[in-house]
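Protocol step 4 of 5: obtain the predicted structure for the target chain.
Materials: sequence only (see below). No template structures provided, no constraints applied. The aim of this step is simply to have a reference model before the mutagenesis design in step 5. Sequence pasted as it appears in the construct record:
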Amino acid sequence: MLTHAQRGHRDLRWAALDASAWAAALFASVWLRYDFRPERVFALDTWIAVAGVVVVHLVAGAVLRLYGRSRVRGSYEEAVDLTIAVAVTAVVLLVWLLIVYPPLVPRSSPARPDRWPWP
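Step 4 output (structure tokens):
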């Protein structure tokens, strides 16, 4: 049986894993969208978007007690809570990208007119 402190550290590891998955996915999507140009991937705008997404996901996870509740990993309840946290994070990111102009990360298509390579 794990002590409360050990369980807390394990929960922090799961939160860090989820946050790193969001960060990797956002960096990969920007990298693919901008034709594998690393200077666009690691721009300040992308870092701001990654930080925002990570914070939103961790807050959603905290509200749902995704990381604080002791439960069986991989259970139905955990999968439902994780799905809700991911959906909330994705909707917040989508709304943020639709409201903020110019967008911090690409909206996928079409390319932003102010950064087209042709005149």
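Step 4 remarks: The two ends are 66 Å apart (CA to CA). Residues 109-113 have pLDDT under 50 and may be disordered.
Proceed to step 5.
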